[in-house]
Amino acid sequence: MLTCSFCGLEAQSVSALLAGPGVNICDQCIEVGVRTIKTRDALEAQEQTGDQQTTPTHDDENLLHQAAASLALVDKSRTRLQSQIDELRSRGIGWAAIGAVLGVSQDVAQQRFE
Questions:
Q1: What pTM was computed for the model?
Q2: 2 CB contacts (<8 Å, ≥6 apart)?
Q3: CA 61 to chain centre
């Protein structure tokens, strides 16, 4: 089964999965990459112009792009973690063991991931 090499989502869980030699990337990870590149380019342009005192609008736009990219990564991480927890549970791993590796109590792990 094909999965994204970056976030681990399976092909049927995403809209598109681009395959390359030994690596696959889903449309969601591409979107995060595009946002990251836009943010990087904006910051590089700022450095090249020597504009240390940028307008608040420019700073706000950069921060908005960074926040959007961070949110996408958090959402992917949550989805991947939930999939991993579901797989562990299907293998008979108990909530106490899952909670221990996550640094939370058995009850907290169960409430959060059940």
A1: 0.50
A2: 10, 11, 17, 19, 24
A3: 20
